Q: What sequence folds into this?
């Protein structure tokens, strides 16, 4: 009986594996595009809006609570991309809005019916700095026009700059040729200044349903004008909020500034080599359920069973001083400064990090700071250093504390020494046992001989 | 016939079996080889970390000793559980279990005695590991964090739980070979399941309804959820992570769950032993 | 001491023990016989609580194992069919372990005393795996006797032993018998049971066929006493003289040997002697032959139960 069951089990597993393999091969071989209903999503992830879509194979959307995210029902051409094992949307070929009302239900009750609206997402300080703004309806169109005008003005300013530069360079060359200018002191007119980079970015005006919900599990569906639910539009919706907020640091070692490390978790210890200088750049961060957050950004990511937490960087800020302590004893404060990295001349390709000063230029342009940070000097005597930021009210900023541990450089041979401890214990115990047995037997043999 | 309380008799049987098993394990070489090997592996991991810090200058992480310590205790926990599986099955096969049950030893005393011996061994080895890690800490000037102590505490319960699983497997298995195969299968499945799930997840089905991959994905997913609830490794990771997050309620809850499942497995071991019998 | 009533053990494919009712009295040596597969080991396993009966009742010392498990187990010493030992321990450590289990007082003294008694003192710190078969069996006995049990259960105690070993075990059993220990022996060596047992039970195909003392068993099989008489001569009147003796069932004269089968187990030799000598011949030798335990055993286990009952009734 057992053999039969075992054989059936093996056959079943083989069949499924074969089926899976065939499915995989089939999937990888298929490059057919087909028209499908999807939800386009512009989901706010705490710092920026992340554009993605929900194909039919994904049954759940994830959105952040109490933030505006945009859900756009669309029809597009879907195809399977085996390189990344995901479905891709050919928006360029087909991207049609699907008209209807987005119904959001909770436990069978409709709690919201959303109509599509115009929207635009803008980053006034630049997309890399975060802080997006979203505008809906008439505001969206107005803001988009405003952005277009500013972009146009910038383009004109850049064009004017190029013209002015050309004139300046030509005039300078002429004067040098004529001998009117022999040194830098003779140049009385300053070169034209290039307009500051235009970082203000904006999307076009699109249509979608703005969704703002409190945390919970919901269902969504699209109901068309005939009152019917559009096929493939029924999905689950998980709305989640951040669990904790804190401060993370990007730690830049002075001798390896190109390979900084992030310390996101408040419980992390920063292990450093002795005689080292660290530059610490703080940023705000939030902690999310990892599964929820990953699926917010990548809806087609595989699911995993265990619950883990993820700290997500959200934005830099200008802090107060960094307090340094040892145990409960305050040592000193470090101020937040600007720094620049200067390449050292020669073949060595070295560099040095210097405090930035206003007015320093590099070539034709004024030099701006490469980064702003706290400079922490560590030596062999530095032990168990505590770091924390304090707010304006002299209270420690939540989640900003870290411990810095200066690790001693030890030879690799020394580290093996503790392994001798279990060896010694083992030898002692086993050896004692064998010795005792041998002694007892020898004593008996002796007694028997005497007898 | 002198009448002594049942509990007293049972405790005596437990203590006697516990002492015997403890002696046998301590005086055998295998335990010490495994202990040394796990410390050696921990040293390799720590060495890699220190080398990274030396070359990179910096390495932020929750606790430098966390992963090597976890590795060491998982190794010794698996070994002790496996050793219990083999020992109990062998005792049944060889007739020693029957010999014990000639005397004032009942199923509860036998199971608890075996369990206590392995747990005592585990605690002794934990103490040894702690000393080794204290030495590492002193040598490398790496502080032992408060979270490390909590991790040791968590590992006591998860190690005990793992040993209880080993006892259960051997109590219901008919032979040493079957018990070994079942236990190894459980460990391998627990370790490989994550990998299998990742592999399956990369297969995107073309159809939502008829592709067997979906079914297999679902089965694997359910199995993984079940393992998350049942696996001592999962409890160790979850408990330590929640403790590091400062969620002491979840940390204590994880310990309570580990204890509960441990007791369930021990009770099931007693029942399994009664059902299987003590004779070969 | 041991009482069972309709004790039954049924496995999925076989009924190993069927309605066994036996009674072991305090202080007696109870022989438990049966061919291989009769159900002896299963019965013993149930007595020891190693197997749970399918049905029936079982008590030891008047108590039930379920309710007085530890008390009962503490008063039983068991020598199993195969000696089991902890290989990693020396004999002394092995005994010490059991002494702790049974809470033996002055355990060091007790262990030393028993080892000396069986002649194993010089081998106390060796591992049992290094012992001969006989030594292992003696060690098993020592283990069983450590706590001075009120009941000894011995399963094939002399199996595989040489005559020297058998004698040593026999002496141990005799000592315990004299000390008043109740002994329950299961064995194939019928001569040992015949020599030692006060009462004997025979099992066959899971059933207890009979439980009685040896004479009672013999009577069940053969209700006559056989006497062999040697005479100096056999006169013609001898046949008539023997036929005239009321309790003579049958006789056979072969040369100067007369084999007489007497009715019952009572002693009628005096009447027979008188009848023979009255014919003028002289008796030079007389020997009473009883059915041996082996003959009795073979009779019980070769015939069915109904046949035996009829044989008993026929007389």
A:
């Amino acid at each position: 009986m057992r053999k039969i069951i075992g054989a059936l089990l093996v056959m079943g597993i083989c069949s499924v594996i074969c089926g899976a393999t065939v499915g995989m091969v089939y999937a990888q071989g298929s490059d057919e595009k087909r028209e499908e209903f999807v939800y386009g999503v512009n989901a706010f992830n705490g710092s920026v809006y992340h554009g993605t879509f929900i194909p039919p194979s994904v049954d759940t959307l994830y959105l952040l609570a109490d933030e505006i995210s945009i859900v756009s029902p669309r029809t597009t051409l879907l195809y399977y991309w085996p390189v990344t094992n995901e479905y891709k949307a050919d928006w360029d070929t087909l991207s049609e809005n699907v008209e209807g009302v987005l119904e959001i239900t909770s436990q069978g009750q409709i709690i919201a019916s959303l109509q599509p609206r115009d929207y635009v997402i803008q980053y006034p300080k630049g997309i890399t700095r975060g802080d997006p703004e979203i505008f809906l309806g008439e505001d969206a169109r107005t803001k988009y026009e405003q952005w277009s005008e500013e972009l146009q003005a910038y383009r004109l300013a850049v064009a004017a700059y190029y013209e002015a530069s050309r004139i300046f360079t030509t005039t300078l060359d002429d004067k040098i040729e004529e001998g009117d200018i022999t040194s830098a002191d003779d140049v009385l007119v300053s070169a034209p200044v290039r307009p500051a980079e235009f970082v203000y970015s904006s999307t076009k005006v699109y249509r979608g349903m703005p969704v703002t919900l409190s945390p919970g599990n919901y269902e969504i569906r699209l109901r068309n004008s005939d009152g019917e639910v559009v096929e493939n539009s029924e999905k689950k919706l998980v709305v989640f909020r951040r669990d904790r907020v804190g401060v993370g640091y990007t730690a830049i070692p002075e001798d390896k500034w190109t390979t900084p490390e992030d310390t996101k978790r408040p419980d992390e210890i920063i292990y450093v080599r002795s005689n080292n200088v660290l530059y610490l750049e703080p940023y705000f961060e939030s902690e999310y359920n990892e599964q929820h957050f990953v699926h917010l950004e990548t809806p087609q990511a595989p699911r995993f069973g265990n619950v883990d937490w993820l700290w997500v960087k959200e934005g830099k800020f200008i802090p107060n001083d960094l307090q340094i302590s040892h145990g409960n004893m305050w040592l000193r404060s470090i101020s937040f400064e600007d720094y620049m990295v200067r390449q050292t001349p020669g073949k060595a390709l070295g560099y040095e990090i210097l405090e930035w000063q206003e007015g320093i230029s590099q070539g034709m342009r004024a030099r701006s700071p490469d980064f702003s940070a706290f400079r922490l000097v560590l030596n062999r005597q530095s032990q168990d250093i505590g770091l924390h930021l304090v707010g304006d009210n002299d209270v420690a900023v939540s989640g900003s504390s870290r411990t810095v541990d200066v690790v001693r450089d030890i030879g690799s041979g020394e580290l093996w020494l503790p392994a001798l401890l279990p060896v010694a214990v083992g030898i002692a115990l086993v050896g004692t046992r064998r010795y005792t047995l041998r002694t007892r037997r020898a004593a008996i043999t002796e007694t028997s001989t005497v007898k | 016939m002198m009448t002594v309380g049942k509990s007293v008799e049972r405790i005596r049987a437990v203590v006697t079996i516990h002492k015997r098993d403890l002696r046998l394990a301590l005086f055998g070489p295998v335990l010490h080889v495994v202990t040394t090997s796990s410390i050696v592996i921990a040293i390799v991991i720590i060495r890699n970390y220190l080398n990274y810090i030396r070359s990179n200058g910096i390495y932020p992480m929750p606790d430098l000793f966390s992963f090597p310590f976890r590795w060491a205790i998982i190794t010794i926990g698996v070994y002790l559980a496996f050793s219990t599986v083999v020992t109990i099955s062998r005792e049944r096969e060889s007739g020693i279990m029957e010999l014990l049950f000639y005397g004032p030893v009942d199923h509860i005393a036998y199971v608890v005695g075996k369990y206590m011996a392995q747990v005592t061994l585990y605690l002794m080895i934990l103490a040894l590991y702690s000393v080794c890690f204290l030495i590492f800490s002193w040598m490398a000037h790496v502080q032992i964090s408060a979270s490390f102590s909590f991790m040791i505490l968590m590992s006591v319960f998860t190690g005990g739980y793992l040993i209880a699983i080993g006892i259960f497997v051997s109590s219901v298995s008919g032979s040493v070979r079957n018990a070994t195969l079942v236990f190894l299968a459980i460990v391998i499945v627990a370790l490989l399941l994550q990998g299998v799930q990742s592999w399956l997840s990369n297969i995107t089905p073309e159809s939502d309804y008829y592709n067997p991959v979906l079914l297999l994905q679902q089965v694997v997913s359910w199995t993984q959820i079940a393992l998350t609830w049942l696996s001592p490794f999962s409890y160790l990771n979850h408990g330590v992570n929640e403790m590091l997050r400062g969620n002491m309620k979840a940390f204590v809850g994880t310990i309570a769950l580990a204890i509960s499942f441990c007791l369930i497995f021990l009770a099931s071991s007693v029942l399994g032993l009664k059902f299987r019998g003590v004779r070969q | 001491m041991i009482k069972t009533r309709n004790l039954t053990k049924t496995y999925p494919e076989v009924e190993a023990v069927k309605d066994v009712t036996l009674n072991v009295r305090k202080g007696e040596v109870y022989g438990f016989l049966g061919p291989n597969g009769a159900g002896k080991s299963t019965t013993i396993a149930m007595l020891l609580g190693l197997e749970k009966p399918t049905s029936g009742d079982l008590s030891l010392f008047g108590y039930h194992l379920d309710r007085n498990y530890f008390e009962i187990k503490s008063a039983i010493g068991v020598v199993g069919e195969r000696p089991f030992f902890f290989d990693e321990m020396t004999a002394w450590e092995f005994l010490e372990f059991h002494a702790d289990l049974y809470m033996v007082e002055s355990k060091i003294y007790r262990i030393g005393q028993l080892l000396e008694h069986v002649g194993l003192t010089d081998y106390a710190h060796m591992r049992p795996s290094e012992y001969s078969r006989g030594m292992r069996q003696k060690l098993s006995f020592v283990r069983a006797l450590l706590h001075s049990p009120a009941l000894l259960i011995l399963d094939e105690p002399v199996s595989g032993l040489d005559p020297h070993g058998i004698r040593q075990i026999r002496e141990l059993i005799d000592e315990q018998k004299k000390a008043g220990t109740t002994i329950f022996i299961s064995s194939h060596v019928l001569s040992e049971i015949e020599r030692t047992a006060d009462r004997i039970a025979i099992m066959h195909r899971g059933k207890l066929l009979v439980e009685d003392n040896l004479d009672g068993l013999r009577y069940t099989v053969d209700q006559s006493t056989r006497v062999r008489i040697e005479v100096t001569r056999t006169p013609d009147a001898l046949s008539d003289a023997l036929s005239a003796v009321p309790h003579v069932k049958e006789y056979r004269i072969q040369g100067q040997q007369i084999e007489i089968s007497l009715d019952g187990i009572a002693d009628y030799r005096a009447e027979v002697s008188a009848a023979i000598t009255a014919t003028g011949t002289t008796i030079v030798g007389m020997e009473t032959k009883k059915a041996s335990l082996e003959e009795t055993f073979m009779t019980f286990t070769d015939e069915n139960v109904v046949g035996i009952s009829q044989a008993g009734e026929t007389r």
About this structure: The radius of gyration of chain B is 21 Å. Residues 2-276 of chain B form one domain. Chain B touches chain C at residues 1-4, 6, 9-10, 12-13, 16, 19-20, 24, 27-28, 94-96, 98-99, 101-106, 277-279 (CB under 8 Å).
